[in-house]
Specification:
With about 280 residues, the protein is mainly β. It is about 10% helix and about 40% strand. InterPro entries: Pept_S1_alpha_lytic, Pept_S1A_streptogrisin, Peptidase_S1_PA, Peptidase_S1_PA_chymotrypsin, Trypsin_dom.
């Protein structure tokens, strides 16, 4: 999370019992143990309310691996339906030669315009198109960071394409974006993506780590209860006119719900020296 305080007295729960007190050293050791266990289909973040590392395990994690994780000190294991995956199918739809993702936020550096999206969408630095048949070019990928992070940037080289600082609300309207900020636990947020449109929910964790499998571990993510599906990858997480994150991945779907993770947009803005406008 933003910061985990080392408590000196037990915290009272609603049921009158005391929450466990774990030191920063214990929580750091728990993080290291979970990451070294390398169990695909797990995600973890510190819950400041209980001062515990909460490990969320998807449906692919075996009972044996769950038992192994539960043996670690300062850890609470929870299940989530479905399987964690980056939400790649193949904001507004964008098309690489072999897959579809979503625009996150339009940004600029001076008079040059770009859009941010997920890093797993920009692996290999593909060109991007505005149409499924690749007849309308947007421009080239100019930067990518995945795994570790999950952000990438594509330059607009087609001057005929509009690129407002706004998010598509999929109801004929747009949400103007005027600033970028940091998410906070409990904050009400919305997500826009090309598969499922706009959905809302709350931020449930910060500085989360997700193991998508095959060595693809991403750190420092925003965790939410907002649903998402393949093709929503890269799409915008926002609150009002403030940009917050880029859709990375998650579990479940928009019929049953799930857990979804987002790359904080401020890190991508800083990495590429660009800004919303």
């Amino acid at each position: 999370m933003l910061a985990v305080s080392v408590l000196t007295v037990g915290s009272a729960r609603a049921d009158g019992t005391s929450a466990a007190v774990h030191s920063a050293v214990q929580l750091s050791a728990a993080r290291a143990a979970v990451e070294s266990a390398d169990v695909a289909g797990t995600a973890w973040a510190v819950d400041p309310a209980t001062n515990t590392l909460v490990v969320t395990a998807d449906s692919t994690v075996s009972a044996t691996d769950l038992a192994r994780l539960r043996r670690q000190e300062a850890i609470r294991v929870e299940r989530t339906p479905g399987a964690f995956r980056t939400l790649l199918a193949g904001g507004d739809a964008i098309y690489a030669p072999s897959w579809r993702c979503s625009v996150g936020f339009n940004v600029r550096k001076g008079n040059t315009y770009y859009f941010l999206t997920a890093g797993h969408c920009t692996q290999g630095k593909p060109p991007y198109y505005a149409t499924a048949n690749h007849s309308t070019s947007i421009g080239p990928t100019t930067g990518t960071s995945f795994p570790g992070n999950d952000y990438g940037i594509v330059q607009y080289t087609n001057g005929s394409l509009a690129h407002p600082s706004a998010v598509d609300l999929y109801n004929g309207r747009q949400q103007r974006i005027t600033s970028a900020g940091s998410a906070r636990v409990g904050q009400s947020v919305q997500r826009s993506g090309s598969t499922t449109g706009v959905h809302g929910g709350k931020v449930t964790g910060l500085n989360a780590t997700v193991n998508y499998g095959n060595g693809n571990i991403v750190r420092g993510l925003i965790q939410t209860d907002v649903c998402a599906e393949p093709g929503d990858s890269g799409g915008a997480l926002f609150s009002g006119s403030t940009a917050l994150g880029l859709t990375s991945g998650g579990s479940g779907n928009c019929r049953s719900g799930g857990t979804t993770f987002f790359q904080p947009v401020t890190k991508a803005l800083s990495a590429y020296g660009v800004s919303v406008f």
